[in-house]
Amino acid sequence: MASVKNLKKDINYVFSDIIEAVYIWEMTAQGKPTKESESLIDEAIASFDSLIKKVNEKGVENKKEHYNKINAEFEQSAKQLVDKINAL
C-alpha cells in the first residue's frame, strides 16, 4: 500500500462508482428507484463510512497490518456490492 491518502481516494472512487452504477441501472431498467437499489446505495454508504472511520483511527499499534486489513475488507465489500448490482 502506497499511502493512507491513496487508500482514502480509492475507497471514495470505488464506492462512488458503485453508487453511480446503481443509479444508471435504475434509469435504464426501471426509470425510478426500487427497494433493492435503494438498499444497495444505503449499504454502499454504510460500508464507505465504516472504512473511512477505520482509516482515520488513531493510536493503532501496527499500522501496516491495520491498513492491510482495511484494504482487504475494502476489496471484499466492493466485490460483494458489484455482485449484487450484477444480480439486479
Concise account of the structure shown:
With 88 residues, this protein is mainly alpha-helical.
What structural keywords apply?
88 residues; 3 helices
**Total helical segments:** 3
Mind describing the biggest β-sheet? Answer: none
Give the overall pLDDT as a whole number: 90
Radius of gyration over C-alpha positions, nearest whole angstrom? 15 Å
Strand content: under 5%
- How many domains? The number is 1
| Uncertain residue segments | none
Distance between the termini: 33 Å
Structural class: mainly alpha
> What is the 3D shape?
elongated
**Strands, total number:** 0
Spell the H/E element sequence.
HHH
Question: What level of helicity do the residues show?
Answer: over 70%
Question: What does this entry look like structurally?
Answer:
The chain is elongated and about 50 Å long. With 88 residues, the chain is mainly alpha-helical. Helix 1 runs antiparallel to helix 2, helix 1 runs parallel beside helix 3 and helix 2 packs antiparallel against helix 3. 83% of the residues lie in helices and 0% in strands. The protein starts with a helix and ends with a helix. It has one domain. It is built from three helices and no strands.
